[in-house]
Amino acid sequence: MKIFSAAQIREADAFTIAHEPISSAQLMERAAGKCATWLEEHYAPHYPVYIFCGKGNNGGDGLVMARLLLDHGYKVSTGILQYGAQASADHQLKLEALQQQYPASLYAIGDVSDIPTLPPDAIIIDAIFGTGMSRPIEGWLAGVVHHINGQRGKHTIVAIDMPSGLRADESSVQQTVIQAHHTLSFECYKLAFLLPENAAYTGEVHILPIGLHPDYITHTPTRYLLADPGIIQTIYQPRNPFAHKGTYGHALLIAGSYGKMGAAVLSARACLRAGVGLLTCYVPQCGYNIMQLSEPCAMCVTDEDPHYSLHFHRSINPATYKAIGIGPGLDTQPGTAKALEHLLDSYQQPMVIDADALNLLSVYPYLLYKIPAGSILTPHPKEFERLFGATPNEVARLELLSQQAIKLQVYILLKGRYSAIACPDGAVYFNNTGNPGMATGGSGDVLTGILTGLLAQDYSPKAAAILGAWLHGFAGDLAAAHLSQEAMTAADIIQWLGKAFLEGI
């Protein structure tokens, strides 16, 4: 699914109006109708509805919702905010229609004191400002937003298209923004919905299709995309019935250290469950028995050191392996950094770099420029900050993420609720599978194993990153559905990986 900017969404509306053809007022009816239907499906008519409308087309959506809900027996009060801007033509048209049918439902809001006291079970609809908002909410309008937010603990707040004050493509940090429980938006995700800093504003996002013209959606390029099931199905490679273990590659995992062998075991198991043909694990001597007993399907090579992996540059022939993953539980010994540098100098194929290997890169940043092109880096936000520096907000961080992927010609998978995969060509894919139950030790080690396994099977680095993140999250969703988010562990993600292949692709 493409993620369009606010400007592109306006272009899509205009294209649809011109080519369907349909009038802008009719398109407004269609969008508001979808919102009204959603509300009817979730809240019975005994819930009183209070709609707050601005003077633009977002307010027009609210006016249409009011009329449709009143038609269906809901008790609706609609407040029109009386700020200086002239109402849009479609807003005025919908206001006149509501005045003709239900004049008693309307009232004017010129100050916070004009807002009535709401009954305990009221639903608040925010239709004040949409994607056209170009400046911060200030003055008495900010007071209205603060008043609505003050009702959040007692009432359900539903935002139409965007929570008022939230910028679609820019940071809204330190801005006055509606804090919605639900956001009903149209046709596709907006960038703002995918950034953690906006979670308190958007609540649960619901994307409602309104029939924007498919030609615009198909032919308009966009930098940001959501890895939906359609994309995943085009990436997935079904197995060849005449395949053998050599068909699916020999992977090497360099992982584990004294006290951190669990990370190596989790990564190895995930790599095998992801379908790799052969797996060799390189571990310190203290990890030999642990690995052999915990994962007998993997081969094991040990370092000369009892506690750390310090000599893998001397002990292995990198060319033997189709893919290499390095980092889980590795530790950050100086000797390990030296061995990593030798590996980066000698291995020319894409590899997966995670955890302590990333921490070593942040300590020795010149190593970043030795990483093979097409490699996959998987930092969490703090690791990313140590590697590339802090940013004032998450929009800036996303831009830095993309810049570094282009500069280094690598794929950077920034882990989070909507993990962002920045590509060397400038594209950024967001992953929407996964849940808070995956915020547990070892979850990242599992992802490293999955990515390494896919890379060994001849998936391109881009395909491995997108598919791997999606499978990792979907397996986590399946585990949480059966075990609860609270009770699941990283090992449960591996256990449900097979089901993720069966049900998700």
From TrEMBL:
Ranges for the YjeF C-terminal domain?
228-504
Coiled-coil regions listed: none
Q: Where does this protein hold (6S)-NADPHX?
A: 57-61, 130-136, 161, 263, 329, 380, 445
Domain YjeF N-terminal per the UniProt entry, residue ranges: 9-218
GO molecular function annotation: ADP-dependent NAD(P)H-hydrate dehydratase activity; ATP binding; metal ion binding; NAD(P)HX epimerase activity
User: Per UniProt, which keywords does this protein have?
Assistant: ATP-binding, Isomerase, Lyase, Metal-binding, Multifunctional enzyme, NAD, NADP, Nucleotide-binding, Potassium
Per its record, the protein catalyses: (6R)-NADHX = (6S)-NADHX; (6S)-NADPHX + ADP = AMP + phosphate + NADPH + H(+); (6R)-NADPHX = (6S)-NADPHX; (6S)-NADHX + ADP = AMP + phosphate + NADH + H(+)
Q: Could you give the cofactor binding note from the entry?
A: Binds 1 potassium ion per subunit.
Cofactor requirement: Mg(2+); K(+)
Xref: Pfam families: Carb_kinase (PF01256), YjeF_N (PF03853)
Q: What is its EC number?
A: 4.2.1.136, 5.1.99.6
Q: Which InterPro entries does its entry note?
A: Carbohydrate_kinase_pred_CS, CARKD, Nnr, Ribokinase-like, YjeF_N_dom, YjeF_N_dom_sf
Leader peptide range in chain numbering? none
Top-rank taxon of the source lineage equals: Bacteria
Binding of K(+), residues: N58, D126, S164
One record GO biological process: nicotinamide nucleotide metabolic process
| Positions with a binding annotation for AMP | K415, G416, R417, Y418, S419, G444
Q: Which family does it belong to?
A: In the N-terminal section; belongs to the NnrE/AIBP family. In the C-terminal section; belongs to the NnrD/CARKD family.
User: Tell me, what does this protein do in biology?
Assistant: Catalyzes the dehydration of the S-form of NAD(P)HX at the expense of ADP, which is converted to AMP. Together with NAD(P)HX epimerase, which catalyzes the epimerization of the S- and R-forms, the enzyme allows the repair of both epimers of NAD(P)HX, a damaged form of NAD(P)H that is a result of enzymatic or heat-dependent hydration.
The record describes its quaternary structure and partners as: Homotetramer.
Q: What is this protein called?
A: Bifunctional NAD(P)H-hydrate repair enzyme
